[in-house]
Amino acid sequence: xxxxxxxxxxxxxxxxxxxxxxxxxxxxxxxxxxxxxxxxxxxxxxxxxxxxxxxxxxxxxxxxxxxxxxxxxxxxxxxxxxxxxxxxxxxxxxxxxxxxxxxxxxxxxxxxxxxxxxxxxxxxxxxxxxxxxxxxxxxxxxxxxxxxxxxxxxxxxxxxxxxxxxxxxxxxxxxxxxxxxxxxxxxxxxxxxxxxxxxxxxxxxxxxxxxxxxxxxxxxxxxxxxxxxxxxxxxxxxxxxxxxxxxxxxxxxxxxxxxxx
Length: 261
Description:
Largest sheet: 5 strands, mixed
Helix content: 40-55%
Shape: globular
Strand content: 5-15%
Distance between the termini: 9 Å
Number of domains: 2
Number of strands: 5
Order of helices and strands: HEEHEHHEHHHHHHHEH
Number of helices: 12
Strand order of the largest sheet: 1-2-5-3-4
């Protein structure tokens, strides 16, 4: 694989693409199906009909040959009783896991462990900046899935995990702490009700702050990691069905297609 063909975010920010985004890489020995999703937890979303269609094609083409499924996750989803339950709980990774389970195919983690990503980021960013980025992502999830939980209750539940990951012994995560970090970074208060701000803060496609730079850095690290996972499975002779975000699918396309050259 030529990993130098991985698209940069500067290039990516200048293009438009469809979502879902799908492509196939095929040689006589084996095949890759890459399904780039829109990150939905809604079973009725139209992308899941297309995902099932492409999955059935993949199963028919690869019958009686060894295959794997690579998911955008660092932890294998549990097996659910229905694909709808899997999607509600895990999104498209849940759908992929469900389909893999019922077809007895092994699952491969496409994502590095959070500890690996954080160790990488701490080479260039402070613990406060890294924590802020992760909690902005968490707050985006909370905004869509409140389920009666206050923001402080939601954030507090993550304290133990990030104490360990960041080696931050007295850390207590609260919205006040996240707001304090934000005030130091941007010299203004953070509006918890502004859903757009958290997407803007964590976007890797624009560079308006160090947090955008951090987001781009972690995403690039993750892109390179999954390319390594794909290359290993390919070299081991597997057919591969990949389910990842559409942006990653686009950025990785040329590098992955170089496997067939």
